[in-house]
Amino acid sequence: MYLAIDVPGHGKVVVDIGYGGTFYAFLSAEQLGLDVRSSKTRDLVSAASAVTEAVKKQFKLHHPESEDLAFLYGTILTDGKDAFSEEPTTNICVFADEQVDRSPTGSGVTARIALQYHKGLIQLEQSRTFQSSTTGSLFTGKAVKASGWCWTFPHLKGC
Ligand SMILES: O=C(O)[C@H]1NCC[C@@H]1O
Questions:
Q1: What does the DSSP assignment read for 77-146?
Q2: Structural element, H or E, at residue 9
Q3: DSSP string, 10-40
Q4: Strand partners of residue 50
Q5: Ligand 1 center from residue 23 Cα (angstroms)
Q6: Any ligand 1 atom below 6 A from CB of 105
Q7: Which residues contact 42 (CB under 8 A, 6 or more apart)?
Q8: CATH of the domain at 21
Q9: How does this polypeptide assemble, per the annotation (predicted)?
């Protein structure tokens, strides 16, 4: 799902909320006037943290099975390249108390894959590669149809 959020100091942005074991807000760094590959990490962290705080204030999350999991863990700024490509798409994950992941983030890329699949940008079993903007490390992942999936998320395509 997506939300229009007013981020103090940055104005209105549109974020996707995704879940991959924990919830993240996703948006292109470009919406914040930044470049995920070349902007200073400090600037990316400040902007991502402002988004996290704004989403927390302006939107209440729910989890279908446990309210303990109904919290926003952080914000992931991307290069905006969500449409399928063989090329890696780059992101930076700013989570918890302004921590920056060295990797593309397991739970984060899981959520990105779920969002890309939900939007029809990738098909089941179609792999994508994700790159950390901080270290360049790579994760590859794909959406698969797993048992139990349709019980948990019956509103999703394919159920
Ligand atoms: O990759 C992960 O999912 C973990 N690393 C940072 C955020 C999560 O805790």
A1: EE-S--S--SS-EEEEEEETTTEE-SSS-HHHHHHHHHHHHHTTSS-TT--EEEEETTT--EEEE-----
A2: none
A3: TEEEEEEEEESSSEEEEEEGGGGT--TTTS-
A4: none
A5: 11
A6: yes
A7: none
A8: 3.10.310.10
A9: Homodimer.
- In a domain, residue 158? The reply is no
Pocket residue to mutate for ligand 1, from 101, 102, 103, 135, most atoms within 8 A of Cβ: 101
Number of domains making up the chain: 1
Which pLDDT tens digit goes with each residue over 92-133? 999 999 999 999 999 999 999 999 999 999 999 999 999 999
28 found inside a domain: yes
Q: Is residue 85 part of a domain?
A: yes
CB atoms within 10 A of CB 133: 22
Ligand 1 in reach of 141 Cβ (< 6 A) = no
Quote the pTM value.
0.92
Report the SS3 class of residue 154: coil
pLDDT digits (tens, 9 = 90+) for 22-51: 999 999 999 999 999 999 999 999 999 999
